[in-house]
Specification:
Elements: E1 3-7, H1 20-29, E2 33-38, H2 43-48, E3 53-55, H3 76-91, H4 94-111, E4 116-119, H5 124-133, E5 136-140, H6 155-175, E6 195-198, E7 216-218, H7 232-235, E8 243-247, H8 256-268, E9 272-276, H9 284-293, E10 299-301, H10 306-309, E11 313-318, H11 322-330, E12 335-337, H12 344-353, E13 357-359, H13 362-366, H14 369-378, H15 381-396, H16 400-408, H17 413-416
């Protein structure tokens, strides 16, 4: 039996990445001593999944995120820079990350050093703590990739890559580390030399094939069976009424215009809009304005259970977050993706390349293209067929059970026999 920590930011979506929490459950079912380590905000969700929870005061994740910039009057390049810097500050604010490393090291002193750490792919503190504790690392939800050469990078990538490297170097110096779990190139990312679990298919990353490193294991995913009864608001929607989900995940949730425009587009092509806004600290006036801008058939929610909602959903408008994209693929749902920052552009590009949806820009949205896109996907039977075929391919790979198999192959014989 191995002692395993699963470390994540204190956001429900960061327990996912396509199958992170499910992998923890599978490992626990096989007799391993699995503990989820994060902030108190997600204790309830983790414990409801029957995974033991260890709380730390700091995880290194900045929440609430930095205020969303007003990009309406900026040049496109400036708007992109602001959005990407906001994403960088969310996962790599030095004071927060340094404090979280200290909390994780203190936890190890109290609870014992684990044999293995599984991490959220953007949690820098977990990576630095793993190196300090000399523990092997598994990255859950992200493939290991060879970095692009500096001359292939856009200016924004060069600037923020340099900023990231400087922050990492200062943190490594603070804790006496070499940074062995960060890639060495011009755009540093969290990289394990042993194992990255990717809850998609290799074909999903066909355009990136030449960059994929061999420690990546593609395990796909399987839809969840609904737990318990559906929420009352969902049961009240007639079963024959097609639903369109509008969401921006848990971090980039401040774009009120996106919610209203997407809901209006969905309603105009015959869908019932379900708008899920997370727990962004909107003012009462902001929320009132949003409600006034939504079609009368809209359900406006902070949270919705995907295991009940996605089987009834026929279209998703979203930002390209990993978990939302993954969920849409598992249930074979066409997608309209408007990326806001970071990895979301890659997800949007892959949605278009796989012909399971459309990739729009913020400019496209302002030009009214959400309605055109919704009509196109509603009327295109080929997209629906592509969605169903990819869902079948994802399921065939085994999902979290296959991920647990890969993790177990890393566990040393000594740990396995405990």
């Amino acid at each position: 039996m191995a002692a395993i920590w699963c470390v994540s930011a204190p956001l429900f979506s960061h327990t996912d990445w396509g199958g992170f929490l499910k992998t923890a459950q599978a490992l626990q079912a096989r007799g391993h001593d699995v503990r989820w380590v994060s902030g108190e905000a997600i204790r309830g969700a983790v414990e409801r999944a029957s995974v033991p929870f260890l709380a730390v005061e700091r995880t290194g994740w900045l929440w609430p995120p930095p205020p969303a910039p007003d990009v309406t009057t900026l040049k496109p390049q400036e708007a992109v820079m602001l959005r990407y810097r906001r994403a960088l500050d969310t996962w790599m604010s030095e004071d927060l990350v340094g404090g979280a490393v200290e909390d994780l090291l203190a936890l190890a002193a109290r609870e014992g050093v684990p044999d293995l750490i599984l991490t959220d792919p953007f949690l820098s503190a977990a990576v630095l703590a793993a190196e300090k504790l000399d523990v092997r690392l598994v990255v859950c939800g992200w493939l290991a990739q060879r970095e692009l050469r500096d001359d292939f990078l856009f200016p924004v990538q060069k600037t923020l890559g340099s900023d990231s490297r400087e922050r990492i170097d200062r943190l490594c110096a603070r804790f006496g580390l070499a940074g062995r779990y960060f890639s060495p190139g011009p755009t540093p990312s969290i990289t394990s030399p042993d194992l990255h679990l990717c809850y998609f298919t290799r074909g999903w990353y066909a355009a990136d094939e030449d960059t994929i490193l061999p420690q990546t294991r593609f395990v796909g995913g399987v839809p969840d069976a609904p737990q318990g009864d559906p929420p009352a608001w969902l049961a009240d929607i007639p079963p024959e009424a097609p639903i369109a989900l509008v969401t921006l995940g848990t971090t980039f949730t401040g774009d009120l215009g996106f919610y209203s425009w997407a809901a209006q587009a969905a309603a105009r092509v015959g869908y019932v809009p379900v708008v899920v806004i997370g727990f962004h600290p909107f003012t009462p006036d902001e929320k009132a304005k949003l409600k006034a801008a939504l079609p009368r058939t809209t359900r406006l929610l902070n949270f919705a259970p995907f295991d009940h909602l996605l089987p009834r959903t026929r279209l998703i408008f979203h930002h390209g977050g990993m978990g939302t994209t993954h969920g849409a693929l598992l249930y074979g749902i066409p997608q309209i993706v408007v990326p806001h920052a970071a990895d979301q552009r890659g997800q949007a590009r892959r949605v278009a390349q796989a012909k399971v949806g459309l990739h729009l820009t913020a400019h496209d949205v302002r030009q009214g293209m959400l309605l055109t896109a919704a009509k196109a996907l509603r009327d295109d039977a080929a997209v629906g067929a592509n969605c169903r075929a990819l869902a079948d391919e994802m399921a065939a790979l085994g999902g979290a059970l296959a991920g647990a198999d890969a993790v177990e192959r890393l566990i040393t014989p000594a740990a396995s026999s405990c």
